Amino acid sequence: MVALSKYATLDECSRSVTASRLGIDNNPPLEVRDNLREICSKVFDPCREFVGGPLAIASGYRCPKLNKAVGGSKTSEHMLGQALDIDCDTFGGKTNAELFYFIKDNLDFNQLIWEFGTDKNPEWVHVSYSRLNNKKKVIKATKVKGKTIYTIFK
Fold first, then answer.
1. Is 95 exposed, middle or buried (0-12, 13-18, 19+ CB in 10 A)?
2. Has residue 96 been placed in a domain?
3. Least packed by Cβ within 10 Å: which of 55, 73, 94, 116?
4. Residue 4 lies in a domain
């Protein structure tokens, strides 16, 4: 097991049911692993300590073929190893909403997305981090007639 940070492993950050099902090699190249180490140490680990227990990485690195297979954005930071979709509702303790606000109010990030769910709690939290030029863009993703719409988070 390859550790990327205090709490995250390479397997957690690159595992994909879709990749396994489709036979896609989702093993990140070395430069992507450096980005994964960065986001895990700067974002995931502080989130894990805030929650005080396990966090699920619903999606981490996605190679371009996997990103296309799951319908990801053509410019997805997941393909660079700079984004994680995190879910703490799975384990209890804190809610995804509490996690979202913790990141928003306490951490450096490039993009933070309240992903679907309800107005009280997202289904999961998307967060991206870059070593350079983090924009701290906060948005909300909703589905309208089957299409994902992004709006500025209020």
1. middle
2. yes
3. 73
4. no
